[in-house]
Amino acid sequence: MNKIYENMLYWKKLSQKERQARIEKALQENVNFTLDTSLGYPASKLDSKVYNEEATFLANAPTLQAYVANPNHIGCHTLGVSEKAFKGTQEMEREVLDVLAVDLFKAHPNSYDGYIAPGGTEANIQAIWMYRNYFSYKLGANPYEIAILASEDTHYSVPKAANLLMLDLLKVPVDFRSREIDTFQLENIIIKAKEKGKKYFIVVSNMGTTMFGAIDNPNDYIHLLEKHQLVYRIHIDAAYGGFIYPFSNAESELNFENAKISSITIDAHKMLQAPYGTGIFLCRKGLIENVLTKEAEYVEGMDLTLCGSRSGSNAVAVWMILFTYGPFGWCEKINILQMRAQWLCQQLDELKVPYFRESFMNIVTIPSEFIADSLVKKFDLVPQKHSDDNSWYKIVIMDHVEIDHLSTFIADLKESLYAEEGITNEI
């Protein structure tokens, strides 16, 4: 059995009645802007002239009830106190984080902090902001002594963070075909950075790159940074792969059991199919305090997030998905997607069309010279670059992508390849 299920503490499958009762209980524990006298909050339920809270369908739609109630989850609810007006749904957010941090990514209970962010981009920026401040506040680093290390396939949120935080980003080349980090060039980059005065490194290691689904090996960074006696912290960007890779790879060590990994980003609005604007940030205890905004004195508790106010209904939506499936149901879903991806790869092998696919992921990326413009338009394929020098197109096997869709693509691909070679269907 996949070790993801060993010692599962929090994640289980609940019935529809159990899920509805849990959400209703949470909403009852929150402030009720219709019935309660609440004069001090710059917030309310969704406007009842636009969103009718008496609509009959809401009685059997607890997640939508949460959207109408409009809870604000400002702050971080794994540390200290929080705004008591929304304590019911805040507890549901903590239940989600327990499932993800402890059951999925193997943290010890109560050994982590985190929150449901408005997307993986913010969660990555939160991590880099946190480490920059940690190096500065705890180790006395100057900003020019700190650098970000990440592969050239890393998500654009990382250069965005470098720009916002005024840190140098050192991009590491990868092999064109394998998408593996070039460790020879990585060591040269580290040596040159050290010569220029860099002493502290924020490493972003990918669990599923956006274009290729490639998995970085954090040990590539660890070995070389320790060889050169440099200080570092490792953040895992699992925004795409976090809800796939731990299930498909029973031997994954990209979790908090690895003492070198300090934080993880996951996106619920990708594979989990939660509403957009639902990222997740997790980190070990003792780190998130470095981004405390002391000036937020009117907020009950500590403002430890980049965004401040955020929708509690997104936490309810993630809770609903997790506890509808349970771990076994989710694993079954991932296995089906893996099977479809494998089928596609088998068809490409028969056509002798090269591709990249990380064996535990559901992205298949094909060199652009094998993809005709007609295929790009018909199947809405996504390029690596929206420019003339694009080298790859990707197919992402999501829940809606069935074998019938892939079969149609393969038939059209075969026809386009024959047309290029001047071969007719009669041959």
Summarize the structure.
This protein has eleven helices and ten strands. It is of the alpha/beta class.
Plain-language structure description:
The protein has 427 residues and is α/β, with parallel strands linked by helices. It is built from eleven helices and ten strands. Residues 423-427 have low confidence and may be disordered. The chain has two domains: 68-325, Aspartate Aminotransferase, domain 2 (3-Layer(aba) Sandwich); 327-421, Aspartate Aminotransferase, domain 1 (Alpha-Beta Complex), CATH 3.90.1150. α3 (87-104) packs parallel to α9 (312-351), α4 packs parallel to α5 and α9 (312-351) packs across α11. The strands form two sheets. It has a seven-stranded mixed beta sheet, with helices on both faces. The longest helix has 40 residues, at 312-351. β4 (200-206), α7 (218-227) and β5 (231-238) form a beta-alpha-beta unit. The protein has helices spanning 16-29, 62-69, 87-104, 120-139, 157-165, 183-195, 218-227, 245-248, 312-351, 373-379, 403-421; strands at 112-117, 146-151, 168-172, 200-206, 231-238, 261-267, 279-284, 363-367, 382-383, 392-396.
What structural keywords apply?
single chain; 427 residues; Aspartate Aminotransferase, domain 2; Aspartate Aminotransferase, domain 1; seven-stranded mixed β-sheet; disordered C terminus
Strand percent estimate = 5-15%
Count of the separate structural domains: 2
Major sheet: order of its strands?
1-7-6-5-4-2-3
- The ordered string of helix (H) and strand (E) elements is HHHEHEHEHEHEHEEHEHEEH
Regarding CATH, which class of the largest domain? Alpha Beta
Radius of gyration: 23 Å
CATH fold descriptor of the largest domain:
Aspartate Aminotransferase, domain 2
Mean pLDDT: 92
Helix content class: 25-40%
**Number of contiguous helices:** 11
CATH superfamily of the largest domain: Type I PLP-dependent aspartate aminotransferase-like (Major domain)
CATH architecture of the largest domain: 3-Layer(aba) Sandwich
Decide which structural class fits the backbone.
Answer: alpha/beta
What is the distance, rounded to the nearest whole angstrom, between the alpha carbons of the first and last residues? 48 Å
Number of strands: 10
Please summarize the sheet with the most strands: 7 strands, mixed
Q: Shape, please?
A: globular
Low-confidence stretches: 423-427
